[in-house]
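In the design runs reported in the main text, the only information available to the sequence generator was the tokenized backbone. The following block is the verbatim input for one such run; it is reproduced so that readers can re-run the procedure and compare outputs position by position.
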């Protein structure tokens, strides 16, 4: 007779293990990377404003801003996916 290990998993116990990991490890890492992306975006704005006539600095500023926006989008997406999965697992 085959007994599956998945039948013995308690979702409440799983949630009690996963929730502190998400709250204490994953969320601060996402917030830190989001802050770095925001700083890159602001740095790009400052480069464009302070070096308005220099086309090379203007291009570097544009790339910094684009990188910051992409980084913030990725971090918001990761945060949303993690919370959706955590909420779905917590419902069982």
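Verbatim output:
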């Amino acid at each position: 007779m085959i007994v599956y290990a998945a039948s013995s998993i308690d979702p409440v116990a799983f949630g009690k293990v996963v929730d502190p990991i998400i709250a204490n490890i994953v969320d601060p890492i996402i917030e830190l990377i989001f802050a770095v992306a925001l700083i890159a975006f602001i740095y790009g704005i400052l480069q464009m404003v302070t070096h308005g006539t220099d086309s090379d600095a203007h291009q570097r500023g544009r790339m910094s801003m684009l990188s910051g926006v992409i980084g913030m989008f990725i971090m918001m997406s990761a945060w949303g996916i993690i919370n959706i999965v955590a909420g779905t697992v917590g419902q069982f």
